[in-house]
């Protein structure tokens, strides 16, 4: 299957748009995507804060064991939405929403992103991050939705980590 990403938003007031084309095997847990900044580039902040929206946010490509229901794949052809709050250790916050649909053999993701309160001298605005540590999201069903909660860590130049709590709702 293929997928398209259309992301727009702001980080500390800087507007940007990103578009991407990806492909993957939804039942095998594989995916790749090529993303391009189409407006607002070059970005004055670390790309890493955007990457989970098309990686961890691309849950139709998650491989589930046979004994666990795959609510996301079951939501198609109607599709699903998700909302996420990312709370960083220095009080920076990102809010993200994604409206996911399918057209033929292609998932379509419309992502809205807002990041605020990133300190000008912090790792995001200074572009000192070096990718996320591997992570597993805990998902559970509640009131007809999936709730996700996980703690993530961005690796930093020179060592150390920049911590972030993700809270996601999939419906």
From TrEMBL:
The keyword Metal-binding does not apply. Keywords: Chromophore, Luminescence, Photoprotein. Pfam families: GFP (PF01353). GO terms for biological process: bioluminescence. The keyword Cell division does not apply. Belongs to the GFP family. This is Chromoprotein. It comes from Acropora tenuis (Purple tipped acropora).
